[in-house]
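SUBJECT: A protein chain and its fold
Encoding: whole-number codes for local backbone shapes
Chain under study, with its fold:
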Amino acid sequence: MDAVLKCFESGYSDFYLVEFLRFDSAPLGGNLDLKYVRDDKLVQLIQCTLELKGEYASHYAAGQVTPRLFELCNEQLKLLNRLSDGETAWITGPLWISARQLLKISTKLDDQQTEFNNSDSKQKTKQRSKGDLEEEKYLEKCVRTIHTSFKLCLNDRNPVAQENKKWGVYFFTNLELRIYQQLHNGDMIRNLVKVIESRAAELPTPEQALWAHKAQLVTYYHYMARYFGCYEMDYERGFLFAQKAWLASRRRAGRQENAICVLLIPFAVLARRWYPDLATLRSICPAVAEFYRPVVECLRNGDLLKYEKWLNANEPMLLRRNLFVALVAIRELIVRKLVKRTLEITRTGPIVPLRLVSSALVYSESRLDNRHRESVSEATLDSTECVLANLIAKGYVKGYLSHSNRALVVSKTNAFPGMVQAQLKTESKHN
């Protein structure tokens, strides 16, 4: 216990302090005499932590996580937040240890509550019928205390750069982003990222702050990629962060690596028109390679029917991961390839009757829902014009539309610029 007191007196964090703060570690040996400790907040922290350990030990055998355990862990972090006033960067380590275990307890309690609600659905329905308010989740309580730690680091005005608590901002950013994603709270994710971006000039870069914590750096890149690509539809920035996360990761088929790769592939297609070499991807992340195999095949052959079926079959998963909009955007590249193949097969030259392209699109759609092939109506031609105008505007097709002649006039040279390249194994380009 003397070692713990010395950490606060001298301003450093070590193994003994970390072990003391953990709720699932045994109490440290040594005499406990707090009457000579002058800081009342430190006394309260020690007493709270000892009670926290006792609460865990009394329920450990039953494998239970109790609400009281959450209350004590939440109080521990609040006390550390109060103690951190006037402290230097060393305190961010203990703050993060306490915040991380608070998140762990909150997640388990919410999972337990979900299981209970599912098993007692009749009672839950009865309560709702009476107009009872839905009980606040532990994660929502948890994130408020963690956000206080975040603000303490963000707003530290210590003039000595190396002692400033701003070095700890990204640790709490990662925790908050994780919580907001579990709560499906996109607005709070957006607000947090805007705060980080607005204060970027005052903060160390993520690479500087997390150079000794590579796993945290990869996590930060991963969350930023998800935010920009899935919430802001900024596929270029989403791709850059996903690429950084991938290059900084272990690049083998772990859980996080798979999650990064699932983001990286569609963002690379939309931002840079790159798709992976399936053989190489299969050797690194076989599950991801199998999942995206139909997408890569459709990008290469323009099989719109196959892509629509894949999109419909995987819609629930894509919605859960906020990737559905990105994969719908990739559909335009499939349509581009279909238009190109139609021109190659029919050999119509640079002036392409709009009815020809419409027939190809109608044929694909009729096969999708097993309808009889319909004739091309004026409304269908108008719809096809809109599709082609969008492809031209985005640079997928070089040419222009002649509305009066109902024709697509494509460039005689490079009418379909090479938009998708295999970058992992070969440098082959497919026009």
